């Protein structure tokens, strides 16, 4: 079967490519706005830019299933609807959605993306993970500060059930390749919910050096962001404070047959 991953260079897309690319029954297409940067073994690079709709039909030609990584843009609900209209009618869509989509983004932004998928006429599976462990190493998020020995995160009392994107990828692989997951919505989390100071302690222990927790306050945590991304992040941190990301589910172990990966395991493997 032919499977397209829309964000193959990202934290989830690359983990999913690691699982799907070695399979002999899958022809894997990896979408990127710059396909020359896709260098994953056994992945066919395809141009897929949310800014260039004229290329979408070529990227979705003959696909049986697509993993959709939602762009962080206000018009994502419309973009996803238009993009899915270019896929064959029999395509199965697995959406990388969000925890509590009605409250994610202004005016139910994530819920509107989910609605676009449900109303696409394609079969679907919704995957709703909490925060990814991989933001702790991604230089576009916390990677640099943690490398420097600090972890600045607002709301010291808020617990987070960090999830490893490799667990999301395992669930996505099942959803893309096994029709028993059609019409299902999966709430995914890591194995436990910990406050940020404990996250820093776990990182320190696993790295063998001190990662100090600091509370940057709400404003500090939004530094450098602007526009839609700033508003979305501000709302997300509000949801962090309200405990939306503390939910621990057994979905990963139920579907994959193994417990969700721990922070310690993530750090050890990343090192
Ligand atoms: N982060 C979380 O904790 C979290 C939690 C729940 C849901 N989500 C949702 O997950 C989605 C994001 O997924 P993700 O975190 O897997 O994607 P990501 O790592 O943010 O990557 C998304 C895209 O960014 C581009 N990119 C730019 N610079 C890059 C670089 N240096 N390395 C890799 N990619 C780069 C790539 O597209 P090009 O190849 O076109 O450049 C890539 O596909 C969002 O819709 C978000 O709302 C995130």
Structure description:
The chain has 271 residues and is α/β, with parallel strands linked by helices. The protein has one domain: Rossmann fold (3-Layer(aba) Sandwich). Helix content is 36%, strand content 15%. It contains eleven helices and nine strands. The protein has helices at 11-20, 56-59, 76-85, 109-118, 143-147, 165-177, 196-207, 217-220, 227-241, 251-256, 263-270, and strands at residues 2-5, 27-32, 43-47, 65-69, 92-96, 123-129, 150-152, 185-188, 212-214. It has a seven-stranded parallel beta sheet with strand order 3-2-1-4-5-6-8, with helices on both faces. Strand 1 (2-5), helix 1 and strand 2 (27-32) form a beta-alpha-beta unit. Helix 1 (11-20) crosses helix 6 (165-177). It binds NADP nicotinamide-adenine-dinucleotide phosphate. NADP nicotinamide-adenine-dinucleotide phosphate binds at residues 7, 9-13, 32-34, 69-70, 72, 96, 98, 129, 131-132, 135.
């Amino acid at each position: 079967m032919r499977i397209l991953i829309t964000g193959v260079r990202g934290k989830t897309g690359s983990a999913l490519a690691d699982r799907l690319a070695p399979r002999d029954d899958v022809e894997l297409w990896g979408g990127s706005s710059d396909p020359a940067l896709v260098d994953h073994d056994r992945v066919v690079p395809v141009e897929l830019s949310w800014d260039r709709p004229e290329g979408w039909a070529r990227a979705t030609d003959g696909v049986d299933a697509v993993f959709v990584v939602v762009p962080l843009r206000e018009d994502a609900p419309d973009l996803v609807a238009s993009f899915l209209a270019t896929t064959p009618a029999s395509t199965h869509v697995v959406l990388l959605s969000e925890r509590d989509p009605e409250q994610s983004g202004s005016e139910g932004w994530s819920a509107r993306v989910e609605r676009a998928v449900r109303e696409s006429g394609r079969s679907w599976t919704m995957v709703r993970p909490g925060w990814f462990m991989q933001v702790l190493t991604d230089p576009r998020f916390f990677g640099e500060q943690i490398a420097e020995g600090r972890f600045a995160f607002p709301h010291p009392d808020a617990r987070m059930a960090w999830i490893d994107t490799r667990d999301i990828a395992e669930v996505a692989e099942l959803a893309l390749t096994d029709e028993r997951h059609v019409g299902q919505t999966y709430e995914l989390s890591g194995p436990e919910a910990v406050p940020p100071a404990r996250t820093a302690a776990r990182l320190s222990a696993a790295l063998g050096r001190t990662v100090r927790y600091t509370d940057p306050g709400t404003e500090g945590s939004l530094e450098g962001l602007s526009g839609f991304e700033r508003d979305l992040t501000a709302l997300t941190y509000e949801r962090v404070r309200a405990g939306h990301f503390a939910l621990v589910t057994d979905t990963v172990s139920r579907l994959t047959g193994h417990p969700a990966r721990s922070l310690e395991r993530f750090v050890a493997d990343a090192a």
